[in-house]
Design brief:
single chain, 8 strands, 6-stranded mixed beta sheet, Acyl-CoA thioester hydrolase, HotDog_dom_sf, Thiol Ester Dehydrase, Chain A, alpha+beta, hydrolase, 36% strand
């Protein structure tokens, strides 16, 4: 299983009145991690969009374990948890620099054609990308 890593410096604007990272910002961090994973394996989400496809999120699940505060640096670890004909599930761990887990998460995605929003398999859109996901996936559905 391939795991990508993306380091993030926590910005003041990402925190709430308590000085803790506001929960919704984790979704942005997950996107950064996912984008890094795609880049690390040789593809780009922008390239997929240029070809007329998008990959909307159909589900997000985040479990918050320990607080992250302004000035800290975290690492988002991302992998392909499961990859099937129409759905890909990514897994994530957000860790403090000392390895303490700040959160765990999963997101589920489908690929759709921009013009009609109908689901289409990654295998039809980009067979090489699909094969790479099968190769690095924790589970193939």
């Amino acid at each position: 299983m391939f795991i990508s890593e993306k380091e993030i410096e926590v910005r003041y604007a990402e925190t709430d009145q308590m000085g803790v990272v506001y929960h919704a910002n984790y979704v942005i961090w997950l996107e950064l991690g996912r984008t890094q994973l795609i880049k690390d394996i040789g593809f780009t989400y922008a390239g997929m969009e240029a070809d007329g496809y998008i990959s909307p999120v159909t589900n997000v699940n985040i479990n918050y374990k320990t607080a992250v505060k302004y000035g800290e640096t975290v690492v988002v670890k991302t992998w392909v948890e499961a990859h099937g004909k129409l759905r890909t599930t990514y897994g994530y761990v957000v860790e403090h620099k000392d390895g303490t887990i700040a959160s765990t998460a999963t997101t589920e995605h489908v690929i759709v054609k921009k013009d009609n929003m109908r689901p289409i398999s990654l295998k039809k859109v980009n067979p090489e990308w699909d094969a790479k996901y099968i190769e690095i996936s924790k589970d193939v559905e």
